[in-house]
Amino acid sequence: MQNTATSHLLALLQLSDSALPTGAFSHSFGMESYLDTGHVHDEHSFAAWLQLFLSQSLAYTDGLVVRLAHEADSMERITRIDQLIHASALPRQLRDAAAKMGARMLAVAQTVRPTQQLEDYAQLVGSGQCTGHPGIAFALGARAAGAPGPDAVAAYLFSTVTSLTQNAIRAIPLGQNAGQRVLSLMHEPVAQATAQIYALHEQDLGAAAPGLEIAQMRHEHLRARMFMS
Fold first, then answer.
1. 3 state SS of 169
2. Which ranges of the chain have pLDDT less than 70?
3. Cβ distance 125 to 137 under 8 Å?
4. Domains of the chain listed by start with CATH number
5. Chain centroid to CA 196: how far?
6. pLDDT digits over 14-60, tens only?
7. What is the pTM of this model?
8. Which of 138, 145, 146, 197 has the greatest number of CB atoms lying within 10 Å of its CB?
9. How many CB atoms lie within 10 A of CB 177?
10. DSSP letters for 94-120
């Protein structure tokens, strides 16, 4: 029989697997706009962009959502987090991406760790009271598996970093070895972002760098695109 630590670790590995069918492979979260302008064009420039995206955007959006949802003690609280993060996402493509990926993450989490709370969240999404967000579904699944909050946050952040790196390997393009160097470089920033998230408050949810939001808005008007956002 698995012990609790092994059980939650395996669940986190499954929920954060880059092969998870959430559609992350089709989203760049604004990176493609920086490819279009030439600001991101090689391993070094991508790594610099990724660290800024992590600390200035992801920590204040999905990362904080995971922490808040993991700590939530009622479905009313979950509903509030869902509504706040949806309202704070200004770029239309970002809102659409969160809803689509949220529905897919919710379905996967219900398969990995089916609980009444996940079922209740699915009903709220189905009724339109909630939009659905991958960070919330992930957090509820991770908590059901017994994963501590910081472990869940770090796993989610690194999963997003991994997905973006795989997308950069295709789009820039980068070699596979370059991608692994970027991922190794991101270990410390992910740990720092996790600590940063635990120093934030609910009112920080949705804070983002204006330049990144503008790039995300510009994306749908690019002449040619590989990604949906």
1. helix
2. 1-5, 23, 224-225, 228-229
3. no
4. 41-219 (1.10.4190.10)
5. 16
6. 888 877 777 677 778 888 888 889 999 999 999 999 999 999 999 99
7. 0.93
8. 138
9. 10
10. HHHHHHHHHHHHHHHHHHHS--HHHHH
